C-alpha cells in the first residue's frame, strides 16, 4: 500500500534529538524533555542507543515511592529501541504505529546512526490526511469512553489508573460538577521534572479540559489540536456529557489506510487532470492568440463571443468592436442569400463548412478569405457555438490570377494563348453543335514579319506584335476571341457566323486595320496579313481540324500573293494532303536519285533555228506511275531545305550531258538551268557553279542561269546584284524568268548583269486576242530591247501567238508549238540532225 503523496520519514523529522546517559536521574531527563518540548529522550552509552524513555513510559512510575526522583533513567527506559530507516515512508510508519501500538520510533540512517524521532503527531501533520479527515467526525474516532478520575485521588493512584486502563490521558472531575480538568502523560513528566511527589490531583491539575461536540469534524478537531498545541480534546455529546477524550493516537487509529490511499489516488488523478487541462487550456489560448489565421468564436446564433489578434489585423475591427456583433458585420454583399443558406444548411447538417468567401474590412475594402467553420456541441448534442478560422487569401488570389494569366494568356501581347484558344474553341464548337449554327476560325499570319525581325531586331518585332494584337482585339466583336499561337501567327474565333458576307467583312476589316502604318520608335512600318478561314462544321469538326485547315487556307493566300483572305475548301484540303504525300516521296526520291533532265529547245524566232535549250527537272513517281510537275515539288523541296541538293544535281547532270555531247562530236548549244530563290541566296552559288564546271569539264559559256523575277526582293537587292555579278564574271549568262509576275523596277534591273528576259507564259497565252496581255507583252519586248536585253517568249503554242511575237520583234521563243521538253536522248538526235522546227520548215517552203 502506498500513498500517492507519501514521503520518506527522513524528510519530515526534525533533527533535534534529545539524549542522556543511562545513569542520569529520571527527574533530570524529564526536566530536559520539558525544557525542549519533546516527548522522548534517547539513552545513549558509548555512542550506542541503549534504550528510549518516552512520555508513555511515565505511566509506569510509582509516585508512592519516596525514592522515585533518585532513580537513574536506566531503570525505566524501554529497550531495545524500535527504529525505522530514514527512507521508510510515512504510510508504512503509520501502519507500524497501529500494529505495534507504539507512539514513537527512532529514525536512523543506513549506518544505524540516530537522526531523530518520529511521533504520531508528525504523521498526522505530514501525511496529507486532510481529505480523509474532513469526511469524518470526532465521534467516529473515539475508541473508549473517557477515563474519569476524581480530584481526590493521589497522583500515584491516578498514574496507576492510567497505566491499568491503557489510556494516555484522563479527565479529572472536580467534585460532582461537570467541570473537568485533564491529566496526560506529559503532566506526569512535568510532575517529575518539577519534583512533585505524591499529592492529590486537585492540587496539581491546572489544565482545564477543552471539549468539542462529538459531531465536530475530525479535520477541524485535528486543526484545533495543532493550533492550540494540545494533544487531547474532550468530546461531549448533545446533552453536554463528556463521552470521550480524543488524542492524536485516536485520529491515527481511525484512519482506514486503504480508503485513504484510494482517496489520495483519486484526488491525485483529479489534480493531475486539472493541471493537464489547465495547461491545455493555456496552450490553446496561446495558440489562438499566436495563430496566423483569424479566429472567431460565436454563439449558436452567430453573435461574436471572442476573436484573436489576427482577426483584428485582417478585418480592422478591434476585439471590443467585434464582440457582441453578428458576423454579418463582415458581410461584403457579394454573395447571394442562397450562398449563405447553403452555408447554414451545411453547418446544421454536418457541423462543418469550408470555402472561399468575400468579406469586407472595417475600411470598406472587400477581400477574399478561405474560411472553415466548425460547430461546437454541448452535452445534449445541441450546437452551442461556432468556431470560424479564416485566412486572407488576397495575395494567393493575385498569384493565382498571375499564374492563370501565364497559363492562358500570351505574355507578350496579353491576348489568349494557344491553350486558352483551344479551350474556348472546344466550348464554342459544343455550343454551335447544340444550337445548330456555324462558327469560324480565322488564321492570320503577318506578311513579311520575319523581315522586320531580321532587319530591325526582335524588340521592334515584339512591339509590332503588341500593336497588331491590340488592333485585332479592337476590330473583332464582343464574344469573338483573339489569340496568339506563337511567332506572328494569330487566330480569331467567331463563335456564331450568320453569313459568309459578314465573315468577309470582318476579314477585310482586319486586313485594313493591320495595313494602317505601324509606328515603332522612328520606324514607320507597313505590313499586311494573310488570313485563312475555316468554318465549323463544313471545314472541320474538331478544334485541331479547324485550326489546321484555316492555316492551310492562309498558306494558299500567301501563295496567291498575300494581304488577302481565303476560305478553306476541300480542294485546298486535297492540296495539303497531296503536299504531304509529295513531301514524303520527295525525300525518298532524292535518296534514290530517280530524277531526270528534260530539255526544251529554244528557237530564234526570226531565223527559225534551234539556238539552245531549257533544262527542266523531271520526277517520275514510281508509286503513281506518273510525272509530278516541278511547279509542284520544287516549292516543297524549297520548304524542306532540299533544293540545294536537288539544284546541284541538276547543274551537275546538265554539265555532264554537255560534255558528253561535245565528246560525241555534237554541236553544243547553250542550256538554261532554273535557279530557285533559295539557291540564289546561298552565298556560295558562284563557287558551286564553278566547282561543277571544273569537275565536269563543261564551259561556262554553255550555261545560262534562269532566275525568277520574284527572287528580286528589294531589301536583298544589293546582295543579289553581287551574286549575279560574281556568276557573270565566271562567264555565265543570266536571264530573268517569268518576267511580268514580280515587281522589279526598271532602275533596279539596270543594275543587274542580265543577258535576257523571259516573258511569262501567262502573258503569251492570250495574245493576240486579249488586248491587255497583248499590250503588256509588246511593252515588255520594247522595254527589254531598250535595256539591251534578249527577249524570250515562253509557252508559244500556236501560230497566231508566234506571229504576234515575231511582229513585235521578240528574239527567241520556246513552246509546245516547236517542241515539248524531251529526254536527253532526244536532244542528241535534234543536235545530230540539226533539227529545225517544223513550222519554220513549212514557212521556209512557202517563202
Ligand atoms: N502549257 C505549256 N507549257 C509549256 C509550254 N512550253 C513550255 N512549257 C512549260 O513551261 C514551263 C517553263 O518553265 P519555267 O517557266 O521555268 O517553270 C518551271 C521552273 O520554274 C520550275 N523548274 C523546272 N525545272 C527546274 C529545275 O531544275 N530547277 C528549278 N529551280 N526549277 C525548275 O518548274 C516550272 C515548271 O516546269 P515544267 O512543268 O517543266 O514546265 C515548263 C515547261 O514544260 C507550252 O507551250 N505550253
UniProtKB/TrEMBL annotation:
Its cofactor is Mg(2+). Residues 12-73, 77-133, 141-199, 205-263 form the CBS domain. Its EC number is 3.1.4.52. Residues 280-326 form the PAS domain. One of its GO terms (molecular function) is cyclic-guanylate-specific phosphodiesterase activity. InterPro entries: Biofilm_reg_signaling (IPR052155), CBS_dom (IPR000644), CBS_dom_sf (IPR046342), EAL_dom (IPR001633), EAL_sf (IPR035919), GGDEF_dom (IPR000160), Nucleotide_cyclase (IPR029787), PAC (IPR001610). SMART domains: CBS, EAL, GGDEF, PAC, PAS. Keywords: c-di-GMP, CBS domain. Residues 437-570 form the GGDEF domain. It catalyses: 3',3'-c-di-GMP + H2O = 5'-phosphoguanylyl(3'->5')guanosine + H(+). Residues 579-835 form the EAL domain. It holds the Pfam family GGDEF. GO terms for biological process: cellular response to nitric oxide. It comes from the Bacteria. The keyword Nucleus does not apply. It is an enzyme of class 3 (hydrolase). Residues 353-405 form the PAC domain. PROSITE patterns: CBS, EAL, GGDEF, PAC, PAS. This is cyclic-guanylate-specific phosphodiesterase.
Amino acid at each position: 500500500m502506498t500513498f500517492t503523496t507519501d514521503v520518506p520519514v527522513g524528510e519530515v523529522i526534525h533533527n533535534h534529538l534529545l539524549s542522556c546517559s543511562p545513569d542520569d536521574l529520571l527527574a533530570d531527563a524529564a526536566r530536559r524533555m520539558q525544557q525542549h518540548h519533546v516527548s522522548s529522550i534517547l539513552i545513549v552509552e558509548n555512542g550506542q542507543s541503549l534504550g528510549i524513555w518516552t512520555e508513555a513510559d511515565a505511566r509506569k512510575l510509582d509516585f508512592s515511592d519516596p525514592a522515585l526522583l533518585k532513580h537513574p533513567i536506566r531503570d525505566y527506559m524501554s529497550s531495545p529501541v524500535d527504529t525505522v530507516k530514514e527512507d521508510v515512508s510515512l504510510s508504512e510508519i503509520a501502519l507500524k504505529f497501529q500494529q505495534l501500538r507504539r507512539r514513537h520510533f527512532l529514525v536512523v540512517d543506513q549506518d544505524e546512526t540516530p537522526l531523530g524521532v518520529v511521533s504520531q503527531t508528525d504523521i498526522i501533520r505530514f501525511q496529507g490526511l486532510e481529505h480523509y479527515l474532513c469526511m469524518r467526525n470526532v465521534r467516529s474516532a473515539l475508541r473508549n469512553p473517557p477515563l474519569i478520575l476524581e480530584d481526590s485521588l493521589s497522583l500515584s493512584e491516578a498514574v496507576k489508573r492510567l497505566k491499568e486502563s491503557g489510556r494516555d490521558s484522563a479527565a479529572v472531575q472536580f467534585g460532582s460538577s461537570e467541570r473537568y480538568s485533564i491529566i496526560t502523560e506529559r503532566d506526569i513528566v512535568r510532575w517529575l521534572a518539577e519534583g512533585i511527589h505524591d499529592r492529590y490531583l486537585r492540587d496539581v491539575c491546572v489544565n482545564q479540559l477543552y471539549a468539542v461536540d462529538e459531531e465536530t469534524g475530525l479535520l477541524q478537531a485535528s486543526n484545533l489540536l495543532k493550533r492550540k498545541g494540545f494533544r487531547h480534546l474532550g468530546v461531549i455529546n448533545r446533552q453536554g456529557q463528556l463521552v470521550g477524550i480524543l488524542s492524536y493516537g485516536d485520529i491515527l487509529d481511525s484512519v482506514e489506510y486503504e480508503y485513504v490511499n484510494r482517496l489520495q489516488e483519486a484526488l491525485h488523478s483529479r489534480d493531475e487532470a486539472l493541471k493537464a487541462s489547465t495547461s491545455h487550456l493555456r496552450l490553446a489560448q496561446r495558440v489562438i492568440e499566436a495563430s496566423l489565421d483569424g479566429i472567431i468564436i460565436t454563439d449558436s446564433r452567430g453573435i461574436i463571443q471572442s476573436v484573436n489578434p489576427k482577426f483584428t489585423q485582417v478585418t480592422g475591427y478591434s476585439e471590443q468592436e467585434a464582440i457582441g456583433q453578428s458576423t454579418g458585420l463582415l458581410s461584403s454583399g457579394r454573395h447571394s442569400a442562397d450562398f449563405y443558406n447553403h452555408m447554414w444548411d451545411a453547418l446544421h447538417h454536418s457541423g462543418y463548412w469550408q470555402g472561399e468567401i468575400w468579406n469586407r474590412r472595417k475600411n470598406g475594402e472587400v477581400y477574399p478569405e478561405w474560411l472553415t467553420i466548425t460547430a461546437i456541441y454541448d452535452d445534449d448534442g445541441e450546437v452551442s457555438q461556432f468556431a470560424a478560422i479564416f485566412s486572407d487569401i488576397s495575395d494567393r488570389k493575385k498569384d493565382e490570377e498571375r499564374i492563370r494569366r501565364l497559363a492562358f494568356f500570351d505574355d507578350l501581347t496579353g491576348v489568349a494563348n494557344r491553350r486558352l484558344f483551344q479551350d474556348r474553341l472546344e466550348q464554342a464548337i459544343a455550343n454551335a453543335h447544340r444550337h445548330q449554327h456555324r462558327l469560324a476560325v480565322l488564321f492570320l499570319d503577318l506578311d513579311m514579319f520575319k523581315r522586320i525581325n531580321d532587319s530591325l531586331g526582335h524588340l521592334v518585332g515584339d512591339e509590332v506584335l503588341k500593336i497588331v494584337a491590340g488592333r485585332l482585339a479592337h476590330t473583332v466583336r464582343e464574344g469573338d476571341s483573339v489569340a496568339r499561337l506563337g511567332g506572328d501567327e494569330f487566330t480569331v474565333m467567331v463563335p456564331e457566323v450568320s453569313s459568309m458576307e459578314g465573315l468577309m467583312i470582318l476579314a477585310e476589316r482586319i486586313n485594313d486595320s493591320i495595313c494602317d502604318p505601324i509606328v515603332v520608335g522612328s520606324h514607320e512600318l507597313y505590313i499586311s496579313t494573310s488570313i485563312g478561314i475555316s468554318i465549323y462544321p463544313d471545314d472541320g469538326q474538331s478544334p485541331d481540324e479547324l485550326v489546321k485547315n484555316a492555316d492551310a487556307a492562309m498558306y494558299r493566300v500567301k501563295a496567291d500573293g498575300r494581304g488577302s483572305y481565303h476560305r478553306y475548301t476541300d480542294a485546298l484540303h486535297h492540296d495539303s494532303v497531296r503536299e504531304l504525300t509529295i513531301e514524303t516521296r520527295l525525300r525518298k526520291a532524292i535518296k534514290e536519285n530517280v530524277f531526270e533532265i528534260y530539255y526544251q529547245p529554244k528557237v530564234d524566232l526570226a531565223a527559225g533555228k534551234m539556238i539552245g535549250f531549257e533544262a527542266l527537272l523531271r520526277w517520275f513517281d514510281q508509286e503513281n506511275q506518273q510525272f509530278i510537275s516541278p511547279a509542284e515539288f520544287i516549292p516543297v523541296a524549297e520548304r524542306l531545305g532540299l533544293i540545294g541538293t536537288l539544284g546541284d544535281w541538276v547543274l551537275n547532270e546538265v554539265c555532264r550531258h554537255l560534255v558528253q555531247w561535245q565528246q560525241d562530236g555534237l554541236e553544243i548549244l547553250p542550256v538554261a538551268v532554273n535557279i530557285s530563290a533559295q539557291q540564289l541566296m546561298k552565298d556560295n552559288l558562284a563557287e558551286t557553279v564553278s566547282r561543277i564546271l571544273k569537275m565536269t569539264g563543261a564551259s561556262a559559256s554553255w550555261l545560262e542561269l534562269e532566275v525568277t523575277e520574284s527572287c528580286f526582293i528589294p531589301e536583298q537587292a544589293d546582295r543579289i546584284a553581287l551574286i549575279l555579278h560574281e556568276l557573270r564574271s565566271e562567264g555565265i549568262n543570266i536571264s530573268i524568268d517569268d518576267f511580268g509576275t514580280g515587281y522589279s523596277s526598271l532602275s533596279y534591273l539596270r543594275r543587274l548583269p542580265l543577258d535576257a528576259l523571259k516573258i511569262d507564259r501567262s502573258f503569251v497565252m492570250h495574245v493576240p486576242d486579249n488586248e491587255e496581255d497583248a499590250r503588256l507583252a509588246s511593252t515588255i519586248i520594247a522595254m527589254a530591247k531598250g535595256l539591251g536585253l534578249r527577249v524570250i517568249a515562253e509557252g508559244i503554242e500556236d501560230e497566231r501567238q508566234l506571229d504576234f511575237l515575231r511582229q513585235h520583234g521578240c528574239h527567241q521563243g520556246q513552246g509546245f508549238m516547236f517542241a515539248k521538253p524531251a529526254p536527253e536522248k532526244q536532244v542528241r538526235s535534234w543536235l545530230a540532225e540539226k533539227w529545225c522546227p517544223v513550222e519554220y520548215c513549212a514557212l521556209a517552203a512557202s517563202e
